[in-house]
Amino acid sequence: MSKKKPRQKKTSSSVPRTPADALEGRERVAAERTESEDTARWWREVVESIVIAVVLAVVFRAFEAEAFVIPTGSMAPTLQGRHKELRCEQCNYMFRSGDSEDSPQVAAVTCPECRYVTRINPKNADQASFSGDRILVNKWLYEFKDPERWDVIVFKFPGSGKQNYIKRLVGLPGEQLMVRHGDVFVRTGEDQPFTITRKPADKLPHIMQTVHDSNFVPESLIQAGWPARWSGVGDGDASWEGSANQSTFTLTESTSGTAWLRYLHAVPDDQQWAQVENSLSVTGMEHAPSLITDYYENNDVIFMNGRRNMTPYGHFWVGDIALECEIQVQDGTGVLALDIVEAGRHHTCEINVADGSATLKISNGSYLFDAGTDGEEIAELTADTAVRGPGSYDVRYANVDDQLLLWINNRLVTWQANGQPHHATYQAPEDERPVWSAEDPGDLRPIGVGGRGLTLTVKDLRVLRDVYYVATDGFDEYLVSKMDSYRILRSPEDWSTTELFDKRNAVYFPAQGVLGPDEFFPMGDNSPFSKDARLWTDDNRYGADGQLDPVPGYVRRDLLIGKAFMVYWPHPWNLGGRLPIIPNVQRMKRIR
Length: 592
What we know:
Blueprint: H1 19-63, E1 65-69, E2 83-87, E3 94-98, E4 106-110, E5 117-119, E6 134-138, H2 141-144, E7 152-156, E8 164-171, E9 176-180, E10 183-187, E11 195-196, H3 204-207, E12 209-213, H4 219-224, E13 230-233, E14 240-242, E15 248-251, E16 259-263, H5 270-277, E17 301-303, E18 321-331, E19 335-342, E20 345-352, E21 357-362, E22 381-384, E23 391-399, E24 404-408, E25 411-412, E26 415-417, E27 420-422, E28 447-452, E29 455-465, H6 482-489, E30 506-509, E31 519-523, E32 541-542, E33 548-549, E34 555-556, E35 560-569, E36 572-573, E37 582-583, E38 589-590
Antiparallel strand pairs: 1-6, 2-3, 4-5, 4-17, 6-35, 7-8, 7-35, 8-31, 9-10, 9-30, 10-11, 12-29, 13-16, 14-15, 15-29, 16-28, 18-23, 18-29, 19-20, 19-28, 20-21, 21-22, 23-24, 24-25, 26-27, 31-34, 32-33, 35-38, 36-37
């Protein structure tokens, strides 16, 4: 009887296993076990990280930062409440208009660039309303430092401890405020003079609002014969040549005098737009350029009931303005000039392109800057700039809060007087009015770019204006009708004689004395549509005991929640009703 051979285990190789093979197998099992442990460890770390993140988020929210949603347009355009964001079908400018839930349904909105009215189709998803900006607020900052003027603060409304407000801090403890001609003045006692409050240079570009952008001129207006906003004026006017779309201007000839390119604030009204839409010329119609005013794109909406939220032209003259542009110097070693006019004063900056040296004068030196540390009167300031020879330069020049500021390539220029730094400040007269004459258009053409001995191109021209704080404590600043102010703002021959500018109001907060040690005065950037401390004392209400409970015209320190520091989630895009989760990344920003 034959014996069965023992069955051999099959292997993947005909080569017999060795001790080394056994060792390799043990290592492979150990490696697989280690990989499994690594995977488990990875998942455990992920879960732990998520738990820690959630705990930190809760702690961060409770003790450091908290998210808020902006409900209204009282801080527009700095912060957006519920609004619509549309692109004008005439000039292609993207703009935002308010759409408060408390107001009737919006039927139409107005483009701030060309004043074209766009009708709203409720079925058009691209015209739908967006919720307000979502912001982050630093809740601990004011535990370690005092709030600063111009901070954007979040606080509990003094009349209701449950309602959050967001405004810009303007008045500080120990101060009395005077709001006058759009500016804010403060003093620390009745025996002290009022001095103007100036916005910091790092905040100002973020607070100012666009009046005009040369990249958005409607072709239809050009074809209909509407006058160009920018054109040559005075000596060498023939030297400036504009592009067909009025966005770029070139100085092609060198002249003995300064060749000026100046801005004219001419915006069409509804009647003129009706002419343009019917392919009719507006050449024979009255164009009536206006002063720059406190027009707010957020406010110019038309409701279903036919009511317009504000005039499409603004109400008050704004003399605090700025210019932004790109200047390309092609040839020459002459002078680049910038000019801003307010109340007939020419605030002129001249830059020698050969070496970058700049001079600053007011009305050719006849109007003086604030005295320096040595007490001497100053008629001229000087500075070194980066404008040297041919090249491209980004320029911003501003006359705001009785101060002249110049940026070259986004860097602030430092002015000097007699070898000492100077803030380029001056004292404006108390009662100012716009000035115009046949020889000098003055405030009718308030911004100019000029060249002498240069060949240059100017593009991306933008006109901006400062916030105009309306002097109101419940009453209009002008004691005249809006139509009267609209007519006068467009009638330069009447500026020297009208009573309109004499009737501008001045209001004081508090009416007597100063703010207490822990009392702060906030106002909204959208001044005419902000329910802020200027009006709270009229918002008295009855408490639970039936007694009148007046609302104070200030915010106590204990009601401060914190400082708003970031828009972390602006509205998402509709994209034709699809994917309404893509954020408007361009508006994610630090709050200034």
